[in-house]
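Quick question: what would this complex look like in 3D?
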Amino acid sequence: MELRKNYFADQRKDDLHEIGQPRPRSDSPGHVTGKTAYFADRNFPGMLHLKMVRSPHHHARIRSIDTSEAEKHPGVVKVLTAKDVPHNVYTILILIQIGPEDETVLADGKVRWKGEAVVAVLAETERAAQEAAAKVKVDYEVLPAVFDMEEALKPGAPLVNEYHGQNYYLYDSGECRKVRFGDVEAGFAGADHILEQTYQSSPIEHAPAETTGCVVAPEGNDRFTCYTNTQAMFFTLDNASIILQMPGSKLHFVGGTVGGGFGGKVDVIVEPIAILGAKLTGRPVSFIYSREEEMQISSPRAAEKVVIKDGFMKDGRIVARKVTGYTDAGAYSRHSPYGAQKGAGHYPGPYTIPNVWIDTYCVYTNRTPSSAMRGFGVTIGDFALEVQMDKLARLIGMDPLEFRFINAYRDGDMKAHRQPTEGAALIECMQEASRAANWPVAEKYLSMSSYTKGA
Amino acid sequence: MAKVPVQFTLNGAEKAEFIDSGTTLLNTLRDKIGDTSPKGGCHQGTCGACSVIINGELRLSCLTLAETCNGAAITTTSGLSEGGVLHPLQRAFLDAFATQCGFCTPGMIMAAKVLLDQTPNPSREDVVEALSGNICRCTGYEPIIQAVLTAARSNSQNAA
């Protein structure tokens, strides 16, 4: 591939000599020889296996839990319920002051999604843990559940999560994250055309080759070493410290080697309960998701719904954009309030639009809690925005790439969320894409620049 | 639970273990013998990460009971390099950037080795077919296919 190094050459001191030069990956020799140590490659004498009893219902009150038969099962060493967890109600983003704490490590009185962890069983073998887990008796009173975001937002919908008190995340801006820029109604009034479209996506599972898990070894000095495949080492350490009410100095996290993550391993799910098991039994503990758990239990990318209304002119200029975005957090927040907020900033796309109105809702439903995945909060939005851009161009008979040149943001343009544009390179990327894809555009677009409003 | 004796060679070395009846070869290799190069990605025979070579044939060690392997010759990826020198397949995977997270890599190399042992000059279609039981979720299939083809070429050059 030809590399063009002339773009923005005046902004650089180096000659980009590294670009296009292969460099060996430092981790590859371990991978090809099978020597790379993933967390599950750690094995300790006397290691216990942890299996979860999970909710078979989407929404239910727990009347009672009977673990007596499970405790008698041969090989069972410990059975844990909510009362064993020092700080059972937590939320991951509390570390950056995004609350309230809204999720239980082990269900306490209620389950809010099908698959929620209720009881943890620790046994000498995986099989004994599995068999004993099947003997735990939980008496449920099934409650009405809600699976659709717009249904969840209607008055009278079943309340998913009492820690929020309503089925949406309450931002400091209210029921949704809001961006207001210019006068969107005046923009629509003056537009030659208006197009409103709705885009929807389903949850997406990351399905990493290596399932989520950890191995915890007690160190004898009241410290615990946790071998984990988390993608968020310090987030996990700090949240484990809160949940276990244990100073971080007692926790030694070893990780960084992840058998595929894609965002699916940033939640704090397996480590705290495995450390607690190791603390209460004095034995090493292994808690590894089965493939079924990875597919059904681990957080997927959120389902999203995006409604985009654009006002635009015959000459190709978009003059007004109104977006309502919905992010399905499932039953708990995890990273979704952040994802929905990112969407609010992102929906104008890399385009300069003078009048913008954006509302993004983070909605609670009785679905599997969603969380991070590769650009969450903006990826589905980008799909929607770029399909919308193609539709707008088609409506006025304009080439879709030229349509994007007309609307592309450039240095100095004020974005809707009040960040002035700096270091824009969209025009140059599109110029290069036009050449590489042999998709010709008019000469005036090839002489445009992100630097100025020229051309 | 009564233990069952199993005996086989692993990468040329004799191994003998007492295991619980019903233990998979994957768990025996990893937990008893300490060869963690086969990986447990699904434990249900769908991902290929646990692939090993038994008597020259590609096998899923998560679906193979260890007690059926008595007297067998078993090869894993950890046994491929000799005297610190990488096997041509390992070299090719390294050079072709055919690893990302690395979790599928040992299984991929096993599948590729059986292919090249049986078909020294494979077509691209042969390679794709041979790797079709191995899932790479970082979706780096193209460099993996190229690595196997490169290893095949370097093998035939060495033989010539």
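Answer marked as accepted. Chain A has a mean pLDDT of 96.
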